[in-house]
Amino acid sequence: MKTVMQKTFKNEFRQVQYVFEHAKRVLIIAHTRPDPDAAGSVVALKLYLERNYNCVVTLGCFSPFPDFLKSVLGDHVFVSPEDLKDDLRSYDVAIGCDSVDRGFAQVVAQLSDDCVTLAFDHHHDISLETDISLIDPLYASTTELLYRFFVYDHGIIDQQIATSLLTGIIGDTGVFQHANTSQRVLEVSANLVSKGASVGHIVRESFANQRIDTLNLWGRALERARFFEESGIVTTILTSEDTIKRQPTGEEVKEVATILTNAPSVKAAIIIFQTGHNLIKASLRAQKGAMIDVSEIAHKFGGGGHQLAAGFEIPGRITTLPNGGWEIV
Ligand SMILES: [Mn+2]
Question: Which of 34, 211, 245, 262 is deepest in the core (most CB within 10 A)?
């Protein structure tokens, strides 16, 4: 088997070191609705900078710090960039970690002209351009990439930093089950374990509960599913009450649509869910060979996608009706 080599970023790492040596006020942004890799990355980088450099770090995000990660990562505060307003111009370094197009891209335009921007990411379709760009889809998680930098930089990686990094790896490898669980990733994980991180602790504290929350959420969505025989389409909803305790990730919601499309005689599934006060998202999935193009439905509502998977976003609120039905107002 041909080994595909990850980028080593030697030049970029040297530049990052230089930037960190001179940094005074650093802003680190996690993507909207942060997952374990996004939250693990920004927490690890904050702690690393505080332990090894001489700067003040603020963590920012358009979503709050995820409750389910607090027992593993600690109780951190994510400041909304909207609340920072003019303060945004006071940072001399701004860093986006993981999926930087979702959140960090919106912040970059508001920074001062001499603020240095950095992106640490492993998504293949990033369009945001930053002063220093460390993006390589061959890394299993953004935290794996950060780990490489920390090792290059020879700084202190304590137990908390190791735990935050391992949380990102566990999240993005689906607890070491996805195809991206390479020998390399396991070696990095073993190193993090040797620094005090615990796979069992991370999985028990965050991922096990997370799975029960996910199942509960799926249960509510499946309960409300309605099948329209003529079209072969199943629809269901998640109201703000369903998502109030914990905002589901996009993946969890899409998974509901996938489960529904696999039911007998179903050609396509649409899950409509409340994502903001007056914002509704929809995720559409079609059964292969069912001759339904869900992107056509999504287009009608200003969304997009392709034949088998699509989505759209509209303003409004989902309300349930006494007869068990629902409407969008
Ligand atoms: Mn990630």
Answer: 34
Q: Tell me the CA–centroid distance for residue 247 and ligand 1, in Å.
A: 18
d(CA 90, CA 210): 37
- Ligand 1 centroid–CA 250 distance in Å is 13
Q: How far is the CA of 245 from the centre of ligand 1 (A)?
A: 23
How distant is the alpha carbon of residue 157 from its chain centre? Answer: 24
Residue pair 166/143 in contact (Cβ under 8 Å)? The answer is yes
Kindly report, residue by residue over 226-275, the tens digit of the pLDDT.
999 999 999 999 998 887 766 777 778 888 888 888 888 899 999 999 98
Using the mean position of ligand 1's atoms as its centre, give its distance from the Cα of residue 121 in Å.
7
- Per-residue DSSP letter, 245: S
Q: How far is the CA of 144 from the centre of ligand 1 (A)?
A: 9
204 C-beta neighbours (distance < 10 Å), count: 13
Model confidence over 50-85: pLDDT tens digits? 999 999 999 999 999 998 899 999 999 999 999 998
Cα–ligand 1 centroid distance for 172 (angstroms): 6
Compute the distance from residue 38 Cα to the ligand 1 centre, in Å.
Answer: 6
CA of 29 to the centre of ligand 1 (A): 13
- What domains can you pick out in the chain, each with its CATH number? 10-198 (3.90.1640.10), 224-328 (3.10.310.30)
Q: pLDDT tens-digit profile of 187-217?
A: 999 999 999 999 999 999 888 777 787 888 8
Yes or no: say if 104 and 32 are a contact pair by the CB < 8 Å rule. Answer: no
Rounded alpha-carbon distances, angstroms, from residue 62 to 87, 115, 214, 230, 244: 16, 20, 22, 41, 16
What is d(CA 319, CA 102) in angstroms, rounded to the nearest whole number? 28
- 231 Cα to the center of ligand 1, angstroms: 37
